[in-house]
Amino acid sequence: MSNKPSQRILVTGATGQIGSELIFELSKKYGKENVIAAGHSRAPSEKMLSAVSYAIVDVSDKDAVSKATARYDIDTIYNLAGVLSAAGEKNPALAWQVNMDGLRNVLEVARERNISRIFWASSIAAFGANAPRVSTPQETSLIPTTVYGICKVAGELLCNYYSNRYGLDIRSLRYPGIISSETPPGGGTTDYAVEIFYEAIKNKKYTCFVRKDTVLPMLYMPDCINATLKLMDADSSKIKIRTSYNLGGLSFTAEELANEIKKHIPEFTCDYKPDFRQKIADSWPMSLDDTPAREQWGWKPTYDLAAMTEDMLDKLSKRL
Ligand code: SER
Fold first, then answer.
1. Predicted local confidence at residue 41, as pLDDT
2. pLDDT of 224-249, one tens digit each?
3. For residue 269, what are the β-bridge partners?
């Protein structure tokens, strides 16, 4: 597997929650001329258009992926295009097309064009209710109940297969719920942990779609970006897992998050009206054992609940 430094980077799903922040970090690191943001459904922001090159690429169209990769002479791909868990339950066929066919297209193009490094986002959704829910181990039963989770398990195995069979340098993280202030997530089960901040600032109240005792693993965006870049920078010999790494960060109940926000906005109130997403949340881990990520390539989160909440409120109040 090659350790050639990344030069020409394609980020799919670049207008999404993670992509829209990752591209700026990549552009700082590798130069704006070397980062191509590829989006499909959401329009790119002015900020994005002025910072990096932008291309329309639907990952479920292999030809489009192949052409973009050739046109921009790409040697590294971050495949972040995806339909999240709750949206996937509303349209399982679309979830499969984007998450599964999209990944397979990216891997095939990578194989055909000798792409030197690939990142792909897996998720805590790869686990199902039969896995231990506290400190969920790296290796355990993976029987998810959502089509999104099924795509993540199959995708992890496909990444492992392409690594072993074709020698591709594929790296992946099982992202927990990502909390961020720049671009809201769309269609996920962990979205409440972001929505609550917007509503707390705008309306001083929020109706949460999971029970107040719901605990899910979460991560603040700066830690998410840091983990992603650290994994991609690590020497290939350190990457022993070619399915996807558990990535731990924060774990708190929805009520604990609401109470933390209340410390800054005392008039804020939160009520709880669980909907179909509760069942998804109940099938996912509450916390992850990420020992392999810590030991193999030095993963270490920095934000706790208090620091994340303070920073989110600070950034969002300035923006809203
Ligand atoms: N944040 C995602 C979701 O809720 C999990 O990867 O679907």
1. 80
2. 999 999 999 999 999 999 999 999 99
3. 205
Which atom of ligand 1 is closest in space to residue 86's alpha carbon? 7
Q: Let me know: does 121 contact 172? Beta carbons within 8 Å.
A: yes
Alpha carbons 87 and 99: distance in angstroms, whole number: 12
- Which residue stretches of the chain have pLDDT < 70? 1-6
pLDDT at 42: 83
- CA 31 to centroid of ligand 1, rounded, Å: 30
pTM: 0.96
Q: What are phi and psi of 151, to 5 degrees?
A: -65, -35
What CATH number does domain 179-217+249-285+302-319 carry, 3.40.50.150, 3.30.750.200, 3.30.365.10, 3.90.25.10? Answer: 3.90.25.10
Other CB atoms within a 10 A radius of the CB of residue 110 amount to 25
Domain map (residue ranges) of the chain: 9-176+221-246, 179-217+249-285+302-319
Pocket test for ligand 1, best of 17, 127, 179, 191 (most atoms within 8 A of CB): 191
Name the amino acid, one letter, at 70: A
Q: What is the pLDDT of residue 6?
A: 52
DSSP 288: B
Distance CA 151, CA 170 (A): 17
Q: Annotated catalytic, 148?
A: yes
The residue whose C-alpha atom lies closest to atom 6 belonging to ligand 1 is: 123
Gap between the Cα atoms of 208 and 275, Å rounded: 9
**pLDDT score of 1:** 47
